[in-house]
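DATA SHEET
Item: assembly model
Revision: 1
Owner: S.N.
Input lines:
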Amino acid sequence: MGKVITGATMSLDGFIAGPEESGFDLLFQWHGNGDVEIPLAGADLPPLRISAASAELIRHEWEGIGALVVGRYLYDLTSAWGGRHPLDVPTVVLTHNRPADRPEDDENFVFVTDGIEAAVAKAKELAGDRNVVVNGGQMARQCLEAGLLDEVGVELVPVVLGGGKTLFGELAGAPVQFDGPVTVVQGSGVTHLRYRVRK
Amino acid sequence: MGKVITGATMSLDGFIAGPEESGFDLLFQWHGNGDVEIPLAGADLPPLRISAASAELIRHEWEGIGALVVGRYLYDLTSAWGGRHPLDVPTVVLTHNRPADRPEDDENFVFVTDGIEAAVAKAKELAGDRNVVVNGGQMARQCLEAGLLDEVGVELVPVVLGGGKTLFGELAGAPVQFDGPVTVVQGSGVTHLRYRVRK
């Protein structure tokens, strides 16, 4: 059985998006500042070009991913990533209402309308013995609150955004303690940190 | 000439104090979870007991500190640390009004009433060729905004506080980018990160 993991690129002051969806250029500089090319699935996305240290970690982790859980907001914001998620795995979209243009689930997107536990269960079924990755923000918050989350990954970048969207949103039950970091990898302009959720 | 540095123990979600001055027990667990004892100056404070990795870094850094700059809020909150700051160096207190019980400056505390630039200048004078450390929060914010800050140190701990006081408060001019981390040291339950401010 795989693990349930959330992860995000985060500013030094704790934001995964700046005010009014700004700051992505600064947050994701590490996606383009290295020598190792990692192709992405989906339509028209340039490959990542990251440091060797980042690439070694990220490649290993991506191979372990069997399915994703994202919210409807991100699905809409990215226009369904042009048809398939860049990580090239089936993606469970938690939503109140199935999109009108997607009457059926397929190998790219599965829609779940009855809550985070059902979404994670569906993703686990799709992932088999590989891991489920849950998107940061509201999805991660709901997973952590429901006791479904096993690990948290933070790609910490040296920028102060001053506001925006946080990794766990308006988390109920804070403070919450993690164990670790169990992994610390220094890339170029990014520090990869991995924590375990205490059960 | 020394550097001007700020540093703080910070939660994974970016807070140096939790809601209503809570969370210090969680933030500072790393001060008591190791084998290496580091004595503190001042009245009745127990020594730090930190990991060997943390101790090696912290000892080296503390030896380089020549003076501190703190705000009046912290000075009052700690009751002047019982008479001398635990780091055992002269401390410049930025305040609107000198405390009535301190008509004169002495070797422990110097009061500056005409702004952050004057406070840092005074601390540099006291520090000689050693470094000046500026307290996190409002002091760090004012220093960064005034272009006075050279380095930022974060002791990142695996706790989510969900709210509170941030490292740079309500920073004007965000986003701000740093270089680094130039140092990453993994202690026990804490990750020591050091960044350089871009000039």
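QC remark: The radius of gyration of chain B is 16 Å.
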